[in-house]
Fold:
Amino acid sequence: MQLQEQKLEYLEDEFLHKFPLLNNIDDDLLLTPKNIANLIGVHEETVRRWCRKGYVKSVSPFGRYKIQGTDFKAFAFQWYCNKII
Amino acid sequence: MNEESKFLSRNQAAKSCGITGRCFNYLINQEPFNKYLMTEDNNNILVNSDVIPLISDYYGTHIASFHYYNSIPEYIPASRVAQMLNISYRELIVEIDSGKWSGMYVMTPKCVPPPEDLFDIKFNYFFLRSEILKGKYNTIESIGKNQNIISVTQLQLYKRRGLLPQPEHLKHTNLYDENEIIELLPSLKVKTNEEFAEKTSDSITSANDLLNLSQQKKISKYIDYRSKGGVVNYNGYTSKYQVANKEESLKAMKAKLSSAFVLIISGRCGIEEDFHKNPLHKNKTPETFNPDVFDLLSIRVEDSFYITSKRKGKTLINYYHQLKAFYYYLLDELEEEALDDPNDFRLFSKQKRNIEKFLNQFPKRDIDLKDSEINHKIKTFLTREQMVLVKQLILEDVRSNNSIKYATMWQLASTTGVRPQEFHKLEISHFHLDSDGYLLTDNDGWGLLSLPAEIAKQERSPSHPIYHTPIPRDTVKQLNQYISRLYMRQGEHIPKGKGYLFRKNDALPFYRYKKPIHFGFINRLRSRLDFIDDASKQDFIFKASRHSLNNTIMRTYINTDTSLNGSIKQTAADHQLRHKPAKSVGEEYYMADIGKEQYYQVLDATINFPWDLEELRKWEENMGYRIPEAINIENIMLNEVFDEETKELQEQLLMIEEQLQKLKEKPKSMTEQQWIASRQQLIKIKNSIN
Structure:
């Protein structure tokens, strides 16, 4: 267990180092699907799909999708881990 | 006689002895020295030198003892004793010789010649002070100093007014029989107090005295009827079955009725001025005032205007209720008499009609009054801290003559809810006392007060029959401090634990205020209450203590046991304030009273606080009623004095916080990258300031 945790910590550091843009997003930010699309170059609808499917946490279950900075970073980190592990 | 002895002149002999010629001459003429005297043929007197050492020795011994007794305060010279007893020195000596004073004095032989008229007295007498004044005779100053119950100044005042009795043989001296004076003091104080009261309050002629005999008789008859428990039942109106606090209520009833009739008579006589209320016109009844112009039964509608034009608001409602009961009593009697004769009955009907019309002119309830006629008062509810501050202000009041008494009143009312009008009848024995006459406490420091119904409001608001009225720890301390002072001032001859708690005079335990206590110290306090707003300051009254007590209990959210916050707290507050709890049928008949433990828990969490500002702060922090100052940002911002630099930084920090809040979502004018970069910059600055 300890090893796993150490590995994750290492990965997190590496991830933030590799992607300075994500590192600059602070935890309290409120991002719309459009903001994310513009930042990382995916389609807005893709971001909405992530929200719908629950991959990424949004602030409210209804209304417009809004994602907190911290949740977006967690999602991106998850994605990064799945890819390389 | 020795053969070698020489003969010397008296002067030479005195010089050899080392004493004055006058003293030597006196001594040599006394026995046994006079046998050493020789008279020559030419009338020259010579002294045998053998006597010189004898006289020298004799003089040395006795003059030393004379100076000794003269200098120490335990002994009084006979001459002073004679003055104190108002007899001559010789008379005293005769009494000494007769053995009257035996054992009370010491005597030394005289070495100095006395005055000619007292030449036969051969001794100096010194009386033992303790014997001569043995609990009997003493000077005013000493009596004042010995006794705690009265000051020297007060005694001197009594003396000047000739109120202090003096034994016949001590007339014109400064000596008084101490025991007699002490026994007399209480009655003297009562006498002077009453004389003063008569001078001040009763100097205005009472309204009742201004009426004529028949009017007075009718009013007295009615008051007598009510005092015996008589009920007025007429025309659908029934008066109360019992008059509560008869002594005061009946007096007020009489005064109110008399005052109404005086106003009517003044009106009928054409006197505009409200003369008998005007203190500048004490005892000056206008010449035109004639009570005979008015008969109680000949009242008309117009008479009501003489009252309504000079009084207003709730006073009129009060007049109405008193007059209604009185007139219905009169009508009830009249109707009975008039029933037999149709003519009488016709007259009666006319009078009844007039009286009804007269009474109808008065406002009957608050709704009948205009809003401007009702005197709205702002009630003040104090926090715990403010209650303690008020106590401190009372203690600091320099114009107060008995600050501890007033502070005790305030604290007692703030924690047990004793009503202002109940104070003057409250006795020490109403508290649960120990054998020394101080308040008995349980393990947690709670004392108990059993306020009986007789002295309570309307005679129907006593303490709880089982739980009584608990007194918090700090109030018990304050009461004990006050009581110990009372015991000291009233003297030891009065048993402890008896008498009124708040007395007109501390030394007179059984002499109480005749009227409810007037809290003059609150008037002086008002301008100093900086913590309440100006409008409330004007209306601040002593009863704010009781208001604040209920408010404190009800508005405190008890954190320690949240189940207490509902009806239990409500009932506990009602018990403490001696209110009848408002209950539904279910609560009244099918639910038990709150337990003693719950009652004490509520009181402990709400009013058992320390009466010291610093300790109160800690207590409130501890109980969770106050945010500790260390994390109270508002307090830091407001109270602490920052230097300029820190202030600037604080302002910067606030601005950054505001901007960050604005930039939480992307403004339209920025791209995503700009937005994130600007936020990052702000966060960096914020961190550097912190």
